[in-house]
Amino acid sequence: MTNIAILGYGTVGSGVAEVIGTNAELLKKRGTGLYVKYILDLREFPGDPYEDRVIHDFDTILDDPEIKVICETMGGTGAAYKFTTLALEKGISVCTSNKELVELHGAELSRIAKEHHCSYLFEASVGGGIPLIRTIVQGLAAEKVERICGILNGTTNFILTKMAKEGAEFDAVLAEAQEHGYAEKDPTADIEGHDAGRKIAILASLVTGQNIAFPDVHTEGITKLTPVDFAYAKALGMQIKLIALYDTQGDKHYGIVSPRLIGEESPLSCVQGVFNGVLIHSNMLDDSMYYGRGAGRKATASAVVGDAIAAAASIGTTIDSGLTEELGDLAEIGTYRQRYFVRLKGSKSVRKEEVEAALGKGSIVFDVAKDEFGFLMKEEMEEAAFMQKTEQLQGVIDYIRVL
Ligand code: HSE
Questions:
Q1: Domain 333-402: which topology?
Q2: What's the confidence (pLDDT) of residue 31?
Q3: Tens of pLDDT along 134-165?
Q4: Pocket test residue of 125, 132, 188, 195 for ligand 1, highest count of atoms within 8 A of CB
Q5: What is the pLDDT of residue 248?
Q6: Which of helix, strand or coil describes residue 189?
Q7: β-pairing verdict for 275-282 and 120-121
Q8: How confident is the model at residue 32 (pLDDT cuts 50, 70, 90)?
């Protein structure tokens, strides 16, 4: 039995206690029993089954030689960073769901863990309960990962799924999502693509073996999408998803989060509602797909506990986190080649030639909205060239990148 402490008894932290409690016999049978000795929180939890384990002083945990593993579920990059550093320096492994901290300091914390013969593990930070990090670091260890296309944010996928099904406006669906607790009161990080951007930065760091920072990811959100965009998608037999993309073209690496049209033949088109899905292309295996609950109390907690089990089974050694401090960067999006769908004012019969002269061959979609038509490019074009062409074309309403 390994004694552990939980930092932060909120949604995920209480989920960690629940997963350990519910599957206690199973874990014991497997020889991986965990015992929650302490729960660190500022609050008291009268009536909670773990009420007697709640403490308010981190030093109690740090000074207890019986504590070998900590589950950090407090979030943020202040106290969580400090406590994680102190624990690792004492040789205590830390398992976390805190993607902000992993994205910002994960490489440094992994080095500290290695120096002190313990582990820093963060399976729950990307894709919630989907075993994605371990799959990339261990399962795909023989592979060169060339492309990752991820639906990595459940909140926005819920909103986009509803907009597609109901033809509803973004603001109305967001308000409904907030009412049901699927979206935060301040939804900025989700709807502006920052959350997905942090997650793809972590995955890009793992597959490049370099430290890729979130600000290097080109990030656009879903706030500008309208019911007309979804009507075009329907007419094309396609879906609009917020795609977190890591891709290689030539010797360049790109990270782009943006709404994209995807064809129904893509397995990502089946990822509906709050679920996440990640399609990975690697050089030997080809495509592999990972699907499941990317958020939520039990799913996220399950991934944290999975890490705690692995850490408990490896006391005195380090499980490679896959992160390094070697600085890496992503190329500017301007040279990235892809296809686009463009909405233009006017009549297709008058403008087809002019549009094809600028954007190459493509198919026209009409009768979706008044006084406009859509143009789906057949050929790929570099982003900078596309932007220049669309600036020269009159009456461009909007565009969506195509996967
Ligand atoms: N806000 C995130 C989401 C939570 O909606 O996917 C999980 O990281």
A1: Alpha-Beta Plaits (3.30.70)
A2: 86
A3: 999 999 999 999 999 999 999 999 999 999 99
A4: 195
A5: 98
A6: helix
A7: unpaired
A8: confident
Contact 109/85 with Cβ under 8 angstroms? yes
Q: pLDDT tens across 165-181, in order?
A: 999 999 999 999 999 88
Interstrand relation of 218-219 and 252-263 (parallel, antiparallel or unpaired): parallel
- Which residues are marked as active site? 199
Q: For all residues of the chain together, what is the average pLDDT?
A: 96
Asked if residue 197 has its Cβ within 6 Å of ligand 1, the reply is no
Nearest CA to ligand 1 atom 7: 295
- Asked whether the predicted pLDDT for residue 349 surpasses 90, the reply is no
Residues 6+ apart with CB under 8 A from 148: 200, 203, 204, 207, 244, 245, 246, 247, 278, 279, 280, 281
Domains 144-293 and 333-402 share a fold: no
- Rounded to the nearest angstrom, the distance between the alpha carbon of 291 and the centre of ligand 1 is 15
Residues 2-128+297-312, CATH architecture = 3-Layer(aba) Sandwich (3.40)
Ligand 1 mutation target, pool 190, 192, 199, most atoms within 8 A of CB: 190
Atom of ligand 1 nearest to the CA of 153: 6
Contact 199, 99 (CB under 8 A): yes
The Å distance, Cα 183 to ligand 1 centre, comes to 9
> Atom of ligand 1 at shortest distance to CA of 189?
1
d(CA 254, CA 203): 12
Q: What is the pLDDT of residues 56-75, one digit of tens each?
A: 999 999 999 999 999 999 99
| Domain spans in the chain, listed from the N-terminal domain onward | 2-128+297-312, 144-293, 333-402
The answer as to CATH 3.30.360.10 being correct for domain 144-293 is yes
Shortest-distance Cα residue to atom 4 of ligand 1: 295
